[in-house]
Design goal:
Elements lengths: L16 H11 L6 E4 L10 H9 L6 E6 L4 H11 L3 E5 L5 H8 L4 H13 L4 E7 L8 H10 L3 E6 L16 H9 L4 E3 L10 E5 L5 E5 L14 E2 L4 E3 L8 E2 L1 H6 L2 H13 L19 H4 L2
Parallel strand pairs: 1-2, 2-3, 3-4, 4-5, 5-8
Antiparallel strand pairs: 6-7, 7-8, 9-10, 10-11
Helix pairs in contact: 1-9, 2-3, 3-5
């Protein structure tokens, strides 16, 4: 989260659940088969469970996923499963309470771990996303990998990205190859075949493990040619690339209820999706932005 907190906006600037459902009903017939509800933290929004239930019932939608920090998950996991959420992505950058609190600016690791345990108990497939940061949590890579031995978790290490272009961001980047090398020195790894609707992660399995270990490499190994995602923020701004500086405001289309115009705009956004963004461990061309606004 930003050090100075999140800039608050007026209620009317946020898409209503009705507008979000209209958007979902518009894009699914166009070929969108997977919807991920993210944030900020989606579980803090009142009424999110009934909204998720309506999403899950959309004809043609094959997969509904939720990304969460898991702070509220222990109490809500059963509700989410009953609502039709099929998978959970959990953001967790440290297994050490003090380090976790420092990274999240006050988060309670015990609550997060309790939420993960509960999700696992009721049969949720769980992916845990770890942003790899040199000098911050790289001493914990083996601890995360070890979780997959006895639990069916998918642990995915994500290269640190210069979203906010903070000072000396380059020094925090650890390549996916280095991460895998460190883990392989302790645990032999075997590649895993990606599923049909898998994301950009390259996945591996420790011999005899129940879960998997993967790396996502937006800095050292672009996967733009495989990217088929668009993002819509809570304020209705759509991005066809995480690092694109241009956004399109969908609120006028949604609030006018003009489905035809909305479909045409969405088709154009997909057609204009860039072939590649410029980012490396030394430079990037985008304008700074906060992931707490765009979502994981």
């Amino acid at each position: 989260m930003p050090e100075d907190g999140v800039n608050k906006v007026c209620h009317h600037e946020i898409l209503s659940y009705e507008e979000l459902l209209l958007l979902a009903r518009t894009v699914v017939p166009l070929g969108i088969e997977k919807i991920r509800v993210t944030g900020g933290e989606p579980l803090v929004r009142t009424g999110v469970v009934p909204f998720l239930k309506e999403l899950s019932q959309l004809p043609g939608l094959r997969q509904l996923v939720l990304t969460t920090n898991a702070s509220l998950l222990e109490d809500m996991a059963t509700q989410l499963k009953d609502a039709g959420v099929q998978r959970l992505n959990i953001s967790l950058d440290s297994l050490c309470p003090d380090n976790f609190a420092a990274i999240t600016r006050g988060g309670d690791l015990a609550k997060v771990l309790a939420g993960i345990r509960r999700a696992n108990e009721i049969g949720f497939p769980v992916k845990i996303n770890v942003v790899a940061m040199r000098g911050v949590n790289d001493h914990e890579f083996l601890d995360f990998a070890a979780l997959t031995i006895e639990k069916p978790f998918a642990i995915r290490f994500i290269e640190y990205m210069p979203t906010r272009k903070d000072e000396s961001w380059e020094s925090r980047v650890i390549s996916g190859e280095e991460i895998l090398q460190r883990i392989a020195e302790r645990y032999p790894l075997q590649p895993v075949v990606r599923g049909e609707m898998a994301g950009p992660s390259r996945d591996y399995k420790i011999d005899g493990a129940l879960g998997t270990v993967g790396v996502i490499t937006p800095v050292s190994g672009h996967f733009c040619h495989d990217c088929n995602r668009i993002r819509v923020t809570s304020q209705g701004m759509v991005k066809n690339c995480l690092f694109a500086d241009t956004e399109v405001d969908l609120k006028p289309y949604l609030r006018a209820g003009d489905v035809t115009a909305l479909q045409e705009m969405l088709k154009k956004i997909v057609t204009d999706k860039p072939g590649k963004y410029l980012i490396s461990d030394k430079e990037s061309s985008h304008q700074p932005f906060s992931m707490s606004k765009v979502g994981g």
